[in-house]
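Key idea: predict the complex, not the pieces.
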Amino acid sequence: MTYDITIDGKKFRLDLQQADGRWSCRLDGREVEVDAVLARPDVLSLRIGNQAFEVKYERVAGDMHLWVGSARFAVEVRDPRSLRGRVRAVDDHCPKKLTAPMPGKIVRVLVSQGDEVEAGAGVLVVEAMKMQNEIKSPKKGTIQKILVGEGAAVNAGDVLAIVE
Amino acid sequence: MFKKILIANRGEIAVRVIRACHELGIAAVAVYSDVDRAALHVRKADEAYPIGAPAASESYLNIQKILDVAARSGADAIHPGYGFLSENAKFARACANAGVKFIGPTAAAMDAMGSKTRARQAMERAGVPLVPGTSRGLESFEQAEEVAARIGYPVMLKAAAGGGGKGMRLVSAPEELKSAIEGARSEAERFFGNSEVYIEKAIINPRHIEMQVLADEHGNTVYLGERECSLQRRHQKVLEEAPSPLVDPDMRKRMGEVAVRVAQSAKYTNAGTVEFLVDQQKNFYFLEMNTRLQVEHPVTELVTGLDLVHLQIRIAAGERLPFTQDEVVIRGHAIECRIYAEDPDNNYFPSPGKITLLLAPSGPGIRRDSGMYEGWTVPMDYDPLLAKLVGYGTNRDQAIGRLTCALNEYFVGGIKTNISLFRRILSDPDFRAARIDTGFLDRLLQQKRASDPRDPKAIEVAAIAAGIFASMGSAAAGAGERSVANDSANSKPTAPSNWKRAARKEASR
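Result:
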């Protein structure tokens, strides 16, 4: 298997083969001696050469995080055969979705549909665990849609509003 | 001794009290709100009763519902834990009227200590050292101006019924006084239904040190040494230790004797805590008395070898204190970290959600009082305290070393926690040298963190691990992934991993 892996904006090409419980591994063409044991679900005990590491896999809505010791890495993995080297276009002119960063309750909606907002302007206020958090507009634009009302319960990742 | 105790609380403290009950051979009754059916305290209890909607006022603060459960279950005593109804004199009275023993002080003692102004008046009479200021609510702005000028700025305005930093205002100059009084009054009215506000001289960057007391119902009162609680954020404690590095045996004895006098003046019974502010010259002033078991009681338990919850239960059952003041010995050093569901990268905002992976630390001198488990969803309705991690050692350095190791082992995945904050605190040179006061944490958090020097080796390790996890697919998945599969009706045991799903989504765009 070949994977394209991106961490902190750094790209790696990883070739992995497994045979008889042993891994052979090339990282950017360089041979690396790897021994891996899944200690329990989401926890990998790795030996690279003779150095030992414990890697934890954290599954959060929409994001994939690996922890090496107490350092967290946001990781993207792609299988280049199915991707054909596509790169996601980042376009500031696209409508942007505002999502709930945590489960909570909408306590206030600060704007109306069609309002012009500046980047960083407050759009909604979400309350969780007795603390209120203002959700801000990621860019300058117009409020195309507000998808929740005051008092609504939301989950992490729910789309709250769209700025265009 | 009691046969059955109802625990009118949730989270780690409910679990801690249930354990104490079982150790003493007493049955434990849990109560839970609609969002807490799967909570750990319900799993650990012998009986569990639903008490309604998530809002605390509908469940954990509802006196009638809790007393109904006490009657239905046949509990002969109620332990209130901390927070919720623990310092509610009305509840203590209602328990007495219902013929069920409230494990804590009498309603009269709570009344005496519940209002900060009334407590100050009682302490004045008992000759306890107080921060200069008024012991009655402010009557007018002119009076406030006059008192502030007399004791000197900066001054602190405080709500008589206050707690948790609400209804408090620091005033550094006369022109700020008026708006500060208005702000403190309206906040006090909103949070406590009582707008009474009084004034105190502000002690800048004091230490916050508190003394544990214990009194039986036969007139015996002892102190169990102090806890250093200066590490606070927004007036909420974050880390506590015992003993305080500042306090020597002579000061401990003087503070302890004042604390005992405070308790006796209120005819106090059961466990309580007398809080002091300590200035840079080591003068100490009575701040308030907390009429409950404290969150941070484990550090006192570790350095005294006593079990405070056992003692609370025994005292409430009418037993005498089984030891005298001379037999209380402080040995070693203990530090507690309050593990909160908070996001350190988002101004420590609460972070409820599902715990997908939980790796718990262990080792010599490590105590963990936890209310969470892997696969549990932290509800958004309550205080974000998840667990308390306590390190004990022969001395402070050893306790710090053990706690640092334990924090490195502790892993809570799926939600954000403040575990990284404690690594920062414990490695800070000022903390290590015990140069701490109530301003320490704000100063630490203002320091720009040296942007995480990313170890290039660790990045490679992460890259290799990412590929291995991806090739293992769902076989490598923990609680988070399983639940995703369970939620979907047509899930197969070989549900594709997040990695593959994400890759497919990308490819099909």
